[in-house]
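Progress report, Aim 2. The chain analyzed during this reporting quarter is listed below.
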Amino acid sequence: PRILGSDLLDDLRWVAPSLSAQQAATFLDAVGLSDVIAQFPEGFATPLAASGFPLSRSQALRLTLARAMASRPRVLLLDETLDSLGLEPEQTQRLASILFAVDAPWV
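Predicted structure tokens for the chain:
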């Protein structure tokens, strides 16, 4: 996964500069990163390496999905992405319901 920002919030704002912390929290929660971020002393301001560290590979992939969602694309292509996120089955089901919601901005 490619990390674009210097910290968690900056990474999401790379594609949505006016994204509020509350909106960012919504996207991060949707991809199952809320609990992970809550463990970081600096929260959203946690610095990120280009590799995504301190996030694991699957968590960094979730961050890139949150970034894609934050950009509110008209089309969102997911090729085996949900299987690679390292989520529990109920988390995957919750994320799928958000991604495939009728009112989602993408098709």
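The CA atoms of residues 15 and 35 lie 23 Å apart. The two ends are 23 Å apart (CA to CA). These observations will guide the mutagenesis work planned for the next reporting period.
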